[in-house]
Specification:
There is one protein chain. By secondary structure, the protein is mostly beta strands. The protein folds into two domains: about 70 residues; about 350 residues, Porin (Beta Barrel), CATH 2.40.160. About 15% of the residues lie in helices and about 40% in strands. The chain contains five helices and 17 strands.
């Protein structure tokens, strides 16, 4: 039996990947990501087969008179004719340069309009963020990723805008399974933190659980190892910088809005005496299904406070896209240790450090209508979150009361004009802060 040609092997792998894509009417982003992961695994297998084929041809050309080897049963295999010199079409995929350019420019941004229904005088429009990214591939295994973000359109000493580096890391792929990142990178937590472009989520604003509890977009400096396995499992783990509790401002309400968001460092002269460790597992072994979770823990006082304290944050999440449906759920839980000692000198201020905070949401969207590049997806989301679920005991009359749990219902829709441009509209009902009920409109893009 003759050996299959490299061209046939590559064609077979591409055909296997493309047939399910052609069969789906409106594949979701999560499903496309899973299929691309599967395609990468299949191409890795093709590379291995092609390498074995070349070794056989090289052996045949160097020893043309050698007798055929016996198979497992002891019988000699049928004769196979192998040309001494492989044609140009037999070059392996690993030796072929990628068609994409080595340097790529990326961008995303969003312009939002928020109108409180009971206080229309507070309506505002904002260029919430504009991000420009640059990726450069030095070779087929190494790339440099960077992103620069501008928030609220204008940044100066007298304006509220910010300019910040969102990502800046080097990634190296050592094997088809294992790779590593070093630098400033997004933390693998929840569903949104690593996939936060406006085209990737429902609603004008990012959900409260993944902004107030998980401080999206959350980034740290460090080293991360990434493993991608053929069974659909992705492992991310590493060592990084962490939070700084010495930044806590008990006189402001920033800590009540997001406890960890108020003490993140973003690799800006980050205190690093106490390092952190993190890990995340995500499984995409069933078409359209994502199951995962993450954990992060690390010291946060860096030897500069009256007590040593540790911040721990973990989450579990799921996303399922059967047919036209897009269903998601997430729970996140954070804790800070030894807060009694830290809060003692802060008593009397409005915002003490909570010992625990958490939140969860469930969300359902339906791909109702498509026409050409247009796609309309109405959605509803129910979420509950509490940024001060409990406080450590400071004694009678001194321990703050836990905050009420906020409940928010968001009902709206995303209209994709193209896969890269989206129009959004929604209405949000707040259970506790009823005066915050609002109408939101948004325009976003990502490429």
């Amino acid at each position: 039996m003759s050996l299959p040609s490299p061209r046939h092997l590559i064609a077979s792998a591409v055909l296997c990947a493309c047939v399910p894509l052609a069969a789906a009417q409106t594949p979701t982003e999560a499903e496309l990501a899973r299929r691309l992961d599967q395609l990468a695994a299949e191409l890795a297998a093709v590379k291995a087969q092609l390498a074995a084929l070349q070794r056989e041809r090289a052996a045949a050309s160097s020893a043309p008179n050698a007798p055929p080897a016996a198979n497992a049963s002891g019988a000699a295999p049928a004769a196979t004719t192998v040309p001494a010199t492989a044609p140009p079409a037999a070059m392996t995929a690993a030796a072929t340069k990628p068609a994409e350019p080595s340097t790529v420019v990326t961008s995303y941004g969003e312009i939002n309009y928020n109108r409180p229904v009971h206080a229309s005088e507070n309506a505002q429009a904002d260029l919430r963020r504009f991000v420009i990214g640059l990726q450069h591939r030095t070779d087929e295994k190494t790339k440099i990723v960077s992103e620069l973000e501008v928030e609220h359109a204008v940044s100066s000493s007298s304006d509220k805008g910010e300019v910040e580096v969102e990502q800046a890391y080097v990634e190296r792929q050592f094997t088809p399974t294992w790779g590593a990142r070093g630098g400033l990178f997004l933390m693998p937590a929840g569903l949104l933190n690593e996939n936060h472009e406006p085209t990737a989520y429902y609603g004008v604003e990012r959900n409260f659980v993944e902004t107030a509890i998980i401080p999206t977009t959350w980034r740290e400096g460090g080293l991360q190892v990434v493993g991608t396995f053929d069974n659909g499992l992705t492992l991310q783990t590493g060592v990084s910088t962490g939070f700084d509790l010495t930044k806590w401002d008990a006189t402001s309400t920033e800590g009540r809005e997001s406890p960890l968001g108020s003490i993140h460092q973003e690799l800006q002269l980050a205190k690093a005496r106490d390092l952190s460790v993190f890990g995340a597992l995500n499984w995409r072994g069933v078409p359209g299904l994502l199951l995962g979770g993450s954990v992060f823990t690390g010291g946060a006082t860096h030897g500069q406070a009256v007590a040593s304290s540790r911040v721990t944050l973990w989450d579990v999440h799921a996303r399922w896209t059967p047919g036209r449906w897009d269903l998601a759920a997430l729970y996140a839980n954070g804790s800070i240790s030894n807060t009694a000692a830290l809060n003692a000198p802060l008593v009397g201020n409005p915002t003490l450090i909570p010992s625990r905070f958490d939140g969860w949401y469930v969300q359902g969207a339906y791909h109702l209508w498509t026409h050409g590049d247009y796609s309309l997806s109405p959605f509803v989301r129910w979420e509950q979150f509490n940024t001060a679920r409990s406080f450590a005991d400071l004694g009678p009359g001194l321990t703050p009361a836990a905050s009420p749990t906020e409940r928010v219902v968001t009902l709206g829709g995303n209209l994709k004009v193209t896969p890269e441009v989206v129009l959004k509209a929604d209405y949000q009902w707040f259970r506790e802060s009823k005066d915050a009920n609002r109408v939101d409109l948004g325009l976003g893009w990502s490429f």
